[in-house]
């Protein structure tokens, strides 16, 4: 069957974005191999169609109408690439796993835990697909993609070739990467993750520490940490299947130690975590909560009642409403704390 025959016209993307916004793609195609991806891009270029690449739709704010060809990467597969590779810098043993860009992220975390591999267990239940994870440099409870990505394989639209970017090439920063800085230019088809055979035993986050105290667990293993993260996240975050959301809507802002000390005098309960030397990362949810936004609803959108960092869509709304709410929240936090909040989700289409 040709690419043209596989294309779906005026395709609804409402179930392809976790916020549940109504959106329609002019053309849509799910690709299951690199060869099919190349053929789809060739077709789009020959027919003057813009190429729009969609992952799991968990970190995007969709426009109602999307022109061009929307491609979803459904390239699957998980396997161990190398076992027992000596890593002298970490004084441990590591295992490389290669994962298709279309694989579900949480299921991949679950699979790695079943292999007794450490490095991504605290990133459980983050929605989305593996191919989108490096773009946002996703992370939770002390673990980030930048710490486990060995290399990324991607199709580069500018050159029309597949490229491999090693960790240092990816430009990883807090919820950022070269892929995010060059939207639509790299289509990730495969990721190689380097995981450890031995877990990091330190549990630094209060929510997890509290969970283990309640469970009477003093030295949790990888599986117990995974289960704890799942339990904590489910208690605080809404299920996108039941209530539209994109997870954490704002980045936790990073400020200087001097700024933090000044704010701490005014707000003794200020929640923050040490970042790089001389900097502190503030809990954006706490800042929003202090501005009395938690649980508020404005039209078809609102702030989740259990976690102020999560904005939700009750149905029937669009991204214009959500962006207006986000702007009002940003203005409140800026006026109260002199701190700017930056959105995590990206507008789709990207360009």
Automatic annotation (TrEMBL):
One cellular-component annotation, GO: cytosol
Pathway named in the protein's UniProt entry: Cell wall biogenesis; peptidoglycan biosynthesis
Organism the protein comes from: Neptunomonas japonica JAMM 1380
SUPFAM superfamilies cross-referenced by the UniProt entry: FAD-binding/transporter-associated domain-like (SSF56176), Uridine diphospho-N-Acetylenolpyruvylglucosamine reductase, MurB, C-terminal domain (SSF56194)
Full protein name: UDP-N-acetylenolpyruvoylglucosamine reductase
Family: Belongs to the MurB family.
InterPro entries, A to Z: FAD-bd_PCMH, FAD-bd_PCMH-like_sf, FAD-bd_PCMH_sub1, FAD-bd_PCMH_sub2, MurB, MurB_C, MurB_C_sf, Oxid_FAD_bind_N
Documented EC number(s): 1.3.1.98
Function according to Swiss-Prot or TrEMBL: Cell wall formation.
Compartments where located: Cytoplasm
């Amino acid at each position: 069957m040709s690419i043209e025959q596989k294309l779906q016209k005026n395709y609804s993307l409402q179930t392809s974005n976790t916020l549940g916004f109504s959106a329609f793609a002019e053309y849509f195609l799910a690709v299951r191999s690199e060869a099919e991806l190349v053929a789809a891009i060739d077709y789009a270029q020959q027919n003057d169609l813009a190429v729009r690449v969609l992952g799991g739709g968990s970190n995007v704010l969709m426009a109602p109408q999307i022109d061009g060809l929307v491609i979803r990467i459904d390239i699957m597969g998980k396997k161990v690439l190398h076992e027992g590779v000596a890593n002298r810098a970490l004084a441990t043993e590591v295992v490389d796993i290669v994962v298709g860009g279309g694989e579900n992220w949480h299921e991949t975390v679950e699979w790695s835990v079943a292999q007794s591999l450490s490095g991504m267990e605290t990133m459980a239940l983050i929605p989305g697909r593996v191919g989108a994870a490096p773009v946002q440099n996703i992370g939770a409870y002390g673990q980030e993609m930048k710490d486990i990505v060995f290399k990324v394989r991607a199709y580069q639209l500018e050159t029309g070739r597949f490229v491999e970017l090693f960790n240092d090439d990816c430009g990883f920063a807090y919820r950022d990467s070269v892929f995010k800085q060059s939207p639509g230019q790299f289509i990730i088809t495969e990721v190689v993750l380097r995981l450890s055979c031995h877990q990091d035993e330190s549990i630094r986050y209060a929510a997890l520490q509290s969970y283990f105290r309640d469970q009477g667990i003093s030295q949790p293993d990888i599986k117990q940490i995974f289960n704890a993260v799942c339990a904590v996240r489910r208690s605080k975050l809404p299920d996108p299947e039941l209530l539209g959301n994109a997870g954490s809507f704002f980045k936790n802002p990073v400020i200087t130690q001097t700024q933090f000390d000044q704010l701490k005098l005014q707000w003794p309960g200020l929640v923050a975590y040490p970042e790089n030397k001389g900097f502190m990362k503030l809990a954006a949810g706490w800042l929003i909560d202090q501005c009395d936004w938690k649980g508020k609803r404005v039209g078809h959108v609102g702030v989740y009642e259990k976690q102020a960092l999560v904005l939700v869509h009750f149905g029937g709304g669009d991204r214009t409403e959500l962006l207006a709410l986000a702007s009002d929240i940003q203005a409140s936090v800026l006026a109260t704390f002199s701190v700017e909040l930056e959105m995590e989700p990206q507008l789709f289409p990207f360009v």
